[in-house]
Specification:
single chain, 406 residues, mainly alpha, two-stranded antiparallel sheet, acyltransferase
Length: 406
Amino acid sequence: MQNVHRFFPELEGIRGVAALLVLLNHVGVYTGVIGSQLFGQPGNAIWAPVLSVAEVGLPIFFVLSGVLLYRPHALGTISGTPRPAAGPYFWRRALRILPAYWVLTVVALVTLNRDAVHGVWEVVRPLLVLQVYEHNVIPAGMGQTWSLATEVAFYLSLPVLAWLLHRWASKAEDAPARTRRIVVPLLGFVVFGFGFAVYTHLPSMGPYPAQHLWPLEWVGFLAIGMILAALSASAEVSQQVWAPYRIAMARPGLCWAGAGVVFLVACSPLTGPHTIDYATMPVALTVQALYLLFTLLLIAPLTAPFQRERLVEATLANPVMRFLGRISYGVFLWHVVYLEYYYRWTGGQPGSGGFWPVLGAVLALTIVTALVSYVAVERPAMKFRPRLGNAPEAPGVSGIFQQART
């Protein structure tokens, strides 16, 4: 066996979808289409459910991180081949995430938060992605970056977690048994995520506790991605593929139809009033379960190790979707800044304004800025990837480093 890079363009495309969903959700909040006590808006009875559930774009990012980053570890454990070294991995993650994020942070602090900066810590804290570990300190224009803190925590802990799973799973004799030894503990993390959601929604915690944004509540989505990574790696090295995963590989349309049904259920009254107000415990747990199932059904077909169905390639690997995937990180980073700018430039108040004019202005500005970020910041940073470890210069949003049989 030799080391090669295999690219999954469909995973790049789905990142573009996720970024647009997050943008739509936030435009819905800022224009009052999604109700909130914060802006004093009841919301739109027809569109609020759909735009509210569009927040599932963030869990999609979590699951994708689990797939992309754990798969080379899973492949090494299941096939008995070398696993990635930690040093080059940390270097590549830092180059991928930090330069563009630091540009956003500086711009947001200077243009939107000057009156809120009273010391060095107010600057250092967001630069180190620590803004979720204190209550109500996320800078204006950076509200969405709470999820980046979860991603960073996952990046830092993955080598240790992968090593523990390797120590446990490598004791099994064959690939299917090793896969089971990986999957079972990861299911425990899914359960733990529900348990932490129970804790953060206890009445004694009050609304919007800082712990709600901690990575522990969202670990289940990362675990789902890691499980898919293990199943994908197992399918590559073994003929014994779990039946549900074999169906996902062969029938992506069926999986996506199921995801569509789950999305509609999430838009129903079953998941509460569809506002951004802090949910009750039953609603929060129901939403978490539905989002876990939705992301599983959506992404499972995209992790097939060999030829994907034409439906998958046509939907997510076309030039438009791959372009959106390439600039998706910039879309994620910049759209909330432009929402803040829009209301300051127009003199309006968040919670007002027409959805479509705001969406048009913010989407256009965000895509242009995201493209500039990709060309001027993200892609140049990637040129430093080969300086620590064997890696291509291309950003890793679509590539999965893996062992390929020769």
